[in-house]
Amino acid sequence: MEEKRKEKGGVKTIAFILGNEICERMAMMGFTRNMVNYLTLQLHMPMTTAAKTVTNYNGTSSLTPLLGAFIADSYAGKFWTITVSSLIYLLGMIILTLSAALPQLRPPPCEGNQLCKEANDTQLCILYLSLLLTALGSGGIRPCVAAFGAEQFVEDNPEQTKKTWVYFNWFFFAMGAAMLMASTVLVYIQDNVGWGWGLGIPTIAMALSIVVFLVGYSLYRNLDPAGSPFVRILQIIVAAFRKRKIPLVSSPELMYVNKELDASISKDGMFDHSNQFKFLDKAAIETEEDNIKSTGKPNLWRLNTIHRVEELKCIIRMLPIWAAGILFATANAQQSTFYLQQANTMNRHLSKSFQIPSASLSVFSMIPMLITIVIYDRLFVPVARKFTGLDRGINFLQRMAIGFFLVILATLVAGFIEVKRKHAAIVNGLIDSPKSIIPISVFWLVPQYALHGIAEAFMSIGHLEFFYSQAPESMRSTATALFWTASSVGDYVSSLLVSLVHKFSSGADGSNWLPDNNLNKGKLENFYWLITILQALNFVYYMLCMKFYTFKPLHSLRSENGGSNQEELELASQV
Fold first, then answer.
1. How many percent of the chain have pLDDT more than 70?
2. What is the distance between the alpha carbons of residues 145 and 213, in angstroms, rounded to a whole number?
3. How does DSSP classify residue 349?
4. Interatomic CA distance for residues 72 and 79, integer angstroms
C-alpha cells in the first residue's frame, strides 16, 4: 500500500494541474486586461466608474481564495475544490461570452458624436452575475492549484524541497505565459474580431482544461483535509480569553503538549515556544477545570497544545509583511485602468495597417518579468550565493524589498510620462478632443510597464515564497490565499483612492485630477505621484518589518529523517 502511494504524484502530474491554472489565468487576464475598454466602449460606462468596477472585480477575485482555502482545508480537499470551482468559473465565462455576443445584452453602439446610451439595469445585472461567478470560481482555483501542485512533490527524500520550489518556478512561468497570451492574441481578437470570439476562445479552453484535469485524477497524490485552520485559530483565541485572568507559567515545559493530537499538523516538526504574544500562551495552560485526566482528550475551546498556539503566533507575525503588499497591488492596479486610458489617446500604430491594442501593452510588463525571473535564477542567485552563503542567494524578504523599491520608480516615471503626453496634446491643439489620437508614440509608456514587471518578478515570487515557507504546514493553502488577498485589498484601496481623489480634487470650474470623459484636462500625474509618496512610506514601513521579523521556530525540521534545517537557520541569521 505504501509503495503504491509513492507511485502517485511527481512531475507527471504537473501538466494536468498547470493546464487548469493556465486556462484560468488566460481567461481572467484576457478579460481584465481589456475590461476597462469593454466597459467604456461597449457598455458606455463613465471612465471612473469603469476603473472602480475593474479594481473591485480584481479585488473580489483575489479575496475569494480565502473561501476556497477554507473549503479545501476543512471539507472537500484540494482536488474537488479545484474541480467544482472550475465548473463555476466556466459557467461565469459562458454567461459573460453570451453577454458580449448577443446585441440585446448590451446597449446600442454610439454613432458619431451623439450621447452614448449606457447599459440598462438588466444588462448590468447579467454582467455582474458573470463577474461574480468567475470571481467565486477563481477563489477555489488560485489557492488550491499552487498548494495541490506542491503536494505532488511531498516525498520522504532529500530532494523534496528542491522539487517543490522548482514547481513554484513553473507555476509563475505558467501564469506569465498565460497572461502573455491573453495580453496579445486574445486582446487582439477582442479589439479586431469581436468580443464574442475574444471571450469564447478562453471559455472553450477552460472547458477543455477541466476535462484534462479530471483525466489526471488517478495520478494525483490527494491528501485528506486536516481540519479548518480558521477553527483552530478561533479555538485558541477563545481559550486564551477564557483563561485571561490566570497567571502565566514559569516555564514552557509546563504548557500542554499532545503529539498524538498534533500528528496530522506537525509532520515537518513541532514548533518551539516563542516569547512573543504571551497572552496567547494561556490557551496552552492546563487547569483543573479542563478535566483532562478524566476525559483523556482536551476541549479545544478551553485547552490547546503549545504547537497550535505557536501556529497562531506564526500567522500573526506574518501579517505586517502581508500588509506591506497592499500598496504594491494598488500601484499594479493602474496597469488595468489609467495606463490603458493613456494608451487609448496615443499613437499605437506599428504600421499604417496595424496598431497595438492598448490592453496588449501589458506584454511590456510580462516579458521583462519573465526575463528577470530567468536572469535572477541563472545569474543573480549563483553570484549572490558566494557572498551570502544562502542557497537562494538572498532570502525572500530581501527579494521583496527590491520589488518594493522598483515599483516606487514605476509610478514616479508614469507621472513624468503623463506630463509629456499632455504637453503633446496642448502643442497639437487636442486638449479639448478626448477621442482624438495625440501624435506621441505609445512606446513612451514602456518604461513604466517594464518597471512594474521587473518589480513583480522580485516582489510577487518572494511574497509567495514567504507565505509558503513561514506558514504552519497545515495552513499552507490558507497562506497561499493570503498571498492573493493582499492583491484584493490593494485593488480595493485603488478603487477607494480613485473615489477620494475624484471627489476632493473637483474644482468649481469643473476641473478634476481624474475627469470622467477627458483625460487631457485632468491631473493624472498628480494621482501617480500621490501613489509614489504612499509607496515610499510603505517601503520604510516594510524595511522596519523586515528588520524585526522573527522566522518560525520549528524544532526537528526533517532532522529525525536525516534531513537538515540548515537553510531555515541561515535565513534567520540574516534578518
1. 91
2. 11
3. B
4. 8
